[in-house]
Amino acid sequence: MSKSTFGIPGFESLSSDDEEGYRSKDSRFRNNKKICRVAAVDIGTNSTHLVIASVDPTLNTFSIDLAEKSSTRLGDRDEHTGDLTEFSKNKVIETLKRFKELALSYKVDEILLAATSAVREAPNGRDFLIQIRTELGLAVELISGPEEARLIYLGVLSGMNFQNSPHFLLDIGGGSTELILADGKDARALTSTKIGAVSLQRDFIRDEPMSEERVDFLRVFIQGSLEPAIKKVSSRVKPGEKVKLVATSGTALAVGALAALEEQDLFLKKHGYKFGKQRLNKLIEKLLKLSPNERRKLPSLSDRRSEIIVPGALIMQMAMQMLQVEDVVLSERALREGMVVNWMISKGLLKDRFSFQGSIRKRTVIHQVERFSVNRQHSERVASTALAIYDNTYGALHNDKGSGRDLLWAAAMLHSCGQHINLASYHKHSWYLIKHGELLGYSHAEHLMIASIARYHRKSLPKKRHDAWSIFESKVHRRIVSEMSLLLRMSAALHRRPSPVIASLRFLSTPSELTIYLIPEDPNQNLGLECWSLRNCIPIVEALTGVKLTVLIDSLGHKDVQIINKFFK
After folding, report:
1. What are the tens digits of pLDDT across the range 204-237?
2. Among 194, 179, 172, 176, which residue's Cα sits nearest to residue 310?
3. Which residues are within 8 A (CB) of 444 and not within 5 positions of it... i.e. 6 or more apart?
4. Fewer CB within 10 Å, N- or C-terminus of the chain?
């Protein structure tokens, strides 16, 4: 694949003269020291894809140096158990070996890997990710359906200017279909439906050409499956808005290529190609009459794509009908490019129009806070104090170098959401709600760590038999949960009252001792309750860190320190 360069919409582009001057110095960015490379791998239901991108933070662009694809067919799961088969797993392992060698040969700064619906839904999916890590030393993020939709949106937006108008984005995958409503600023709705071209072919199509009754059944099934997603995105369309449809994925591009062939269009570029519903309907009528062998003879279709093109085209047809749109535009940018954009955001390389995505974590946490009727003011106080303890106790209470700080904040904001169910053992309910909730912008592992930090902010410490602990096989993840939950435990202990009584904290620490000074909002405020509550953390602090904790009250800005001895006898 030839190298293509494209800018991120919303950023000022170079003039033609400036661009020519820049490229004349280094047309492939080879000698620019600011350029970095990243590899993105998408382990999908039908195929495993790789892109290697060069990122230029000065121009706010990235360019695709290499794109590779292998048909690995993870969606062909065991029909009795639903497990990923040894054959498909071995194909993925061999593919990832090649992709890793290619990425290292390009001297990439980081390799990003994401697994989607096939691995999410297979009973042995997590075991397979452990196998990849063990054999290849590659860590794969298992992303949720909504997170997949968010990354697809970033990818599409990276190669298409929405001009502040609303767009439906349709990604027809092998095992799931993502439908998004966005306007170039933020995603108004992100949905993921468990139907795809591979899963429909596997579950419902036996003999081909299909009978009319079977085709009608398949259409009704697709319509019923898509209905919740269609309803959600349609409800977010404002009165008077006309929404355009953009389709992405290998299936959508293949359908577009066949539609162009039917009308003898000069199909030079898939990206941005537009065709209408009538042309799609005509194409589907033809495809339904063909046998698999006859479809294999169609130009632009691989053998594997010819097997699944019919259910994929039917998904597109039903989506267009239900969304009441007449045309569809194709996008070659999707999940993999979205992974690159997301990486740029995480490194602080994108701002302006994408700054909203930089705050996706904060906004998704606040959404859950509101959803579960959490007392936001109280949670914000707990979170602020937890971060103050984090920032002032490195080397004493924790050795985290930054990765746990944001997880601590999220857990602090949501630690009491379990009270929405029951006050008794609410920390366990909080773990369940966070674990099964929607936290966009966090990896699967980070999501689980947030839930477990909230789980262990009170009562017992982690035990091997606990689900909230046994899910972590990484020692790093367990360390983060252990340390951050201790900090959250201490912070929550200082905020037992409904109204704030502590203005700030001061810290004095040595390798073996830590003194925390409580500064009250009112010099006459009695902080005996806070001292007593924090006292309960002392045995746990000493057991986990070996640090001796002392609590003092500084009622006059540390000019007159009162030692609360009676609470520590």
Report:
1. 998 999 999 999 999 999 999 999 999 999 999 9
2. 172
3. 141, 142, 143, 144
4. C
